[in-house]
Amino acid sequence: MWPGILHVWGSPESPLREASELPIVTAVAAAGGAKRMGDPRGAGAESGLARKSDPGAPAPGPASLKGEREEPNQGSVLFLGGNEVKSSAVVKYSSAPPQAAFARLQEKTDLKLPPANWLRESAKLGPAGATILGNSKKGKPFSSFGMAYDFIDSIGNDVDVVSDSENIKKLLKIPYSKSHVSMAVHRIGRTLLLDDLDIQELFMRSSQTGDWTWLKEFYQRLIDQKWQRKKKSKEHWYQKAILSKFLYYSINGDGAAQPVPPEEQHQEETTEDQTAEAGRVSWPAPFEMPSSLSEDASASNQGSVPHEPSYVVGDVSSVPKEQNLSTLFSDGGNSQGLKNDFVRNILWTFEDIHMLVGSNMPIFGGGRYPAVSLRLRDNNKPINVLTGIDYWLDNLICNVPELVMCFHVNGIVQKYEMIKTEDIPNLENSNFSTKVIKDIAQNILSFLKANCTKEGHTYWLFKASGSDIVKLYDLTTLCEETEDKYQNPFTMPVAILLYKVACNMMLKKNQNRKHYGTIRTLLLNCVKLLDKGRHPQIIASANYMLSELFQLDEPKKEESGEFPLNGNSDESYSEEEEEMPDSDENGSYSTSSDPPDDNKAVAVIKSVGELSVPEKYKSTHQIRPSCAFPVCHDTEERCRLVLNYVLEGLKSVDSSIKKESDLPAADPSTPIPLKYEDESTSVGPECLEKQMALFLDKMGSFREVKHSSQSGMIPGSWQYKMKLQLILKSSKAYYVLSDAAVSLQKYGRALRYIKLALQCHDTYCCLCTNMLSEVLLFLCQSLTLCGDIQLMLAQNANNRAAYLEEYNYQTKEDQEILHSLHRESSCQVFSWATDLSTDLECQLSISCKCYEAANEILLFSNLKGQNPEQYTQVLKRMGNIRNEIGVFYMNQAAALQSERGENKTVSAAEQQLWKKSFSCFEKGIQNFESIDDATNAALLLCNMGRLMRICAHAHCAAAVDFKREFSHEEALYYNKAVDYYLKALRSLGEREVHPAVWDSVNWELSTTYFTMATLLQDYAPLSRKAQEQIEKEVSESMMKSLKYCDVDTVSARQPLCQYRAATVHHRLASMYHSCLRNQVGDEHQRKQHRVLVDLHYSKAVKFFHLLKDVPCELLRVQLERVAFAEFQMASQNSSAGKLKTLSGALDIMIKTQSVFQLIRKELVAEFEQRLEDNKSNVESVPAEDSSTSLNKEEIVKLLGIFESRLSFLLLQSIKLLTSTKRKVGGNSEEEEILKTNKNVYSLLLRSAANKNLTLLERTEVVLNLLEKLTQDNEGNILGIQ
């Protein structure tokens, strides 16, 4: 049963019958080659199954025919003289008792005398009695609907026609008969429903009640101006009574006539009159029923209706003025004929026409006859063509191979005659061509299908008595021109049938989505037919099913995927065709108001003779030429359609609830104010905690609390069940809209939609006494999405004004849905989660509370195990939001720290923020570790390390008298930071788990060690530790920093790592250099320090060279190396040693040539840029603000040092070389070096004396001097070689 859908099965006393398909099939044709009498395969279309709804029906009994029945051949074809007629029959359902063996009456039996068993129940007849055997009542006006309701699977798809067998015969006899034809035609998909439309009975009722006057006036004006009621003759009732008595005689055990005792004669005659009177059609009132009748009918049904989760129409007890739907299915005097009263329902295939036919023809068996039909004929009246066609078609439909004819004269039995079914068309005075009958059937079906094109419309097929013209009218169109368009009595049955077919397809909708267009069109037509005020239940249910057709959570690509929703198929059609005039070669639709009746007819058959012409009428219309299911191009469009249907459904439900006057007045057109608050006490963390506690308390106790509706809905009523389903659907639609808005980064709109979704859910919780796990899971998802939105709003605070505008906007549709929700609930349970706050901390707290609420729901409802993915997602989000809040508090603490300055102690506010941040990180790590998310846990540990570094930085002692030292608290916090970083690395395990995070943690760890070492080196705690211990700790920290500094992996961070490594080596070299200068130790240690200084300086130079964009740092390192050479030279005694050291120092100077080239390049680029700016009349940019990365002040300073050291080295070199020459006598190489050095020294002194040189010019001079030294050096090397 489709959840929440109204199911219209019938009255509670007669539930939907199951189609018992008994394939008793044969093919019967006109002459020759037919099955002989007694062939077991020619058994009649009869089933021994009792009707499910009739507990009193006898159990199946043995067939009268002895011996085993062979399996029949379905759809066999017989040939008759070159012509063929294919016919097969399958009994879908039968309530007839086992076939009674007919008794052959003795000659001279007087049929005018009633038998003793006349009109009495008999075991052979079953409880239906006279109805089964021969009280051939005129067909009820809705007989086809009764069958359609029972075999709903066949409607719209497999079957072409559903009708009473009498109507089928009447249609096929049109060319042969002068009698009038009046039938109502309805179309459901490819199926046509045909019902007898007794105009005489209808107008007779109209004269009494005043109903149907519009049709009566139309009939008298255009068709029969002198209409009057034609009464049936006494002969008619006499013949019916004779036939009934004959059939009762035929089932009598001894076969003898047993007249009724005289005292019972009068009672039997009275019964006969009553039976004849009951044979007349009792037409229903259109829709205006007295309120008392409706209430009575409703009251009479209430006691017997079972209460089930599915919605049975009989359950409805609506407002007094509404016609109660249960009267449509009741068996009482107000019955509208919607029950399937046929003894058997047969799926008859005649040629290519599939018909579901109802038949009450009595079938007998006995002796060697498996099935025969009994007929009573007046011997003085020969069988004519009409009677022959009647008999032939009856036997074909019921699959009866033989006809037994009893002839009488004035009620006295004369003789019996046996006639095979295939011989009937060749009887004397009754010759007819079976092929012509086939052509007539195909032509009539084509004519009707071509012109009855609008589902939900009632068409009237009419042929006047004695006329050859057949006309088709659209009564729905004619009825709409009157004051009350609901005057058409077929409106309700058609609407219910449309609804039932749609409902049946809905149950199978997941099997094939190509039916969606069909379902939608059926439901739209159903809603269009019904009056909203009178039938709210069906309208609400139809609108709910319409909303269910749209898959809210499907990806967009599926809309045009494997299911051809917009392709041409027989299963779907466009609503647009309803607005277009239909026409074909044989008829046309006209909207003209001219007096001639042709302008009122949809189509006309100008002569009944045309029906006999093969393929004269062809259906030029596909029943469903194109798709009606809308292809939604985006999610919002799809959801808006769903919400539109939901709103219509809610309106129907609300309109049917009586306690309107008890409700507070609310105008749907007035916007419901949305609460908007800024930084006030009502949105603080404490208030949030209280609201969360109340919410969780309510969620935890909803099973025990008995909820009630403010509007007065009764739990268990159809309004209650339907409103729950509609509210849940709207909640899902708003959720999808919110999710779509998030993907578009429209976070204000997203918050508005999720607020509406949670308001719907709040109302659902208020009404529902026992929530399903699926609903709780959806609530969990909604709260999770709400948390996401609040987080996004917090992270995008710059667009707050735009988000506020989106949040406050409301459509009329949303207002009306909210109005319906407020009938049941205040909708404030989730207000803590959906308010738009301007406070960043509050938004983050709300987001966290949403995730916590979702997690609580998963835990207390035991959904954690059933939905592990959802649980993982919630915990991941909880960990993430706690990280965000922790970072927020950490940044606030850092901001406070920068504001207070360095000379003040740590404030209590800072410490409070540290605690909050630490707590959030700790909880977040627990969340991630509980779902084995090592990567995110590592990131939070990394953030905890950063927090510890901020704490360490905050404890820097005030630099009093410039004697600041690295404090114990700083060391403590830095060591804690190192511990958290190492934990993060252990959490990851190896780099392959997440390379980016691994590299990030390594970098942070390296930075921590480097910072700690730098602070130890720069602010040595000499008051607490010895110099040697400090140097050792600095060295260890620096080496650990190098260990975690990855200089080899190519990445965006590689230059930073190289710079860090260069800086570490530079600092270590400087530290050991300082040790050599300032400390006196043993010679071994000094020698070791000299080696370390050389090693670290060379490595620093190597890394700075790799970077190519740090000329100042590289120049400084090289100058320190020169200074180290000078220091070594000072301790040397021999001239040769000093000369060697000087030569090495000058080599270092020469190697700085690349540094000065880079400086010159940057200065030239800056100069050219300035020239271009001057040409463009653009104000020149100051040097300090130029785009170059050079620190000119630093360069000037370093250049001055460089020039002085170069001058010193050259001077010392000249002195040493001169003294050596005097003592020993110089060689040519040394003389050349001396000459060059003197020349360079002279140029350098002149340059230094010129104070007007610019930085660029000084750089050029240095480069020229270095070039000369380079050439001289290379020449010396070549000379040596």
From TrEMBL:
Residues 84-598 form the EDRF1 N-terminal domain. It holds the Pfam family EDRF1_N. Residues 572-585 have a biased composition (Acidic residues). GO terms for biological process: positive regulation of DNA-templated transcription. Residues 31-78, 257-278, 556-600 are annotated as: Disordered. Residues 874-1272 form the EDRF1 TPR repeats region domain. It comes from the Eukaryota. This is Erythroid differentiation regulatory factor 1. It comes from Podarcis lilfordi. The lineage of its organism: Eukaryota, Metazoa, Chordata, Craniata, Vertebrata.
